[in-house]
Design brief:
Elements: H1 2-42, H2 51-76, H3 79-84, H4 86-96, E1 102-106, H5 116-137, E2 141-149, E3 152-159, H6 171-176, H7 179-184, E4 189-195, E5 199-207
Parallel strand pairs: 1-2
Antiparallel strand pairs: 2-3, 3-5, 4-5
Helix pairs in contact: 1-2, 4-5
């Protein structure tokens, strides 16, 4: 238990460092640039000839800042996950949250029954596999499928990385995001397989939760 808690704390620390770096690179630097430009503009005794163009540039910079804030907020906790559940969150992630990789989502045949904590963990593990393992490795496409069957919810990621000539999803890479420890808290399991046709396949399975009648 002590080792598990220590591992969870390390994982949280790594996440905080990554978000802090993202806030600095994508927000703090742009805000400093905007403040400098506005400060210089305030020194002008009269509006310069390119004033309209400057205002347009500043407006674009503000829009970029807003987009960065929304992305970081969604990374911390997607609102759609709390309001509509795992299926809707995965659909949203596949459509709008992965600009660097083609993400296909296969809808389940029935509603997924999970506690909020389990849904958050499954979504987080899925997002980290895509963003922290597949995207940096240059994988072009990933397929995400979720289904509920025989009292269990199964989330599967299939990354066809055969064209890259190596297996990109490894046990070492999955250990870096503490996947097995996090699933252990849910009484869940994980399985990693490689094949010539499907490439690397990660299967996450946790018990489904059924409401009391």
């Amino acid at each position: 238990m002590r080792a598990l808690l220590e591992r969870q704390q390390l994982l949280n620390l790594q996440q905080h460092k990554r978000l802090a770096r993202k806030i600095h690179d994508e927000i703090s630097q742009k805000m400093t640039l905007l403040a400098l430009q506005l400060s210089l503009a305030s020194l002008e005794s009269s509006p310069p000839a390119n004033w309209a163009g400057n205002c347009k540039d500043w407006a674009s910079l503000v829009m970029e800042l807003g987009q960065s804030v929304r992305e970081i907020t969604s990374e911390l906790q997607p609102r759609i996950l709390d309001e509509f559940g795992l299926t809707s969150a995965l659909r949203w992630f596949a459509q709008f949250s992965t600009r660097d990789i083609c993400c296909a989502f296969i809808e389940p045949d029935e509603n997924i029954s999970l506690t909020p904590f389990a849904a958050n963990e499954l979504f987080g593990i899925c997002r980290e596999i895509v963003a922290d393992i597949l995207v940096p490795a240059g994988v072009a496409c990933v397929e995400i499928e979720v289904e509920e069957k025989d009292g269990a919810v199964r989330l599967q990621l299939r990354a066809n990385d055969n064209r890259l000539g190596r297996e990109l999803i490894t046990e070492k890479a999955l250990a870096a995001i503490a996947m097995h420890e996090r699933l252990l808290c849910l009484d869940g399991t994980a399985e990693l397989n490689h094949s010539a046709d499907a490439g690397s396949v990660v299967t996450l399975s946790v018990p489904a939760s059924r409401p009391v009648a």
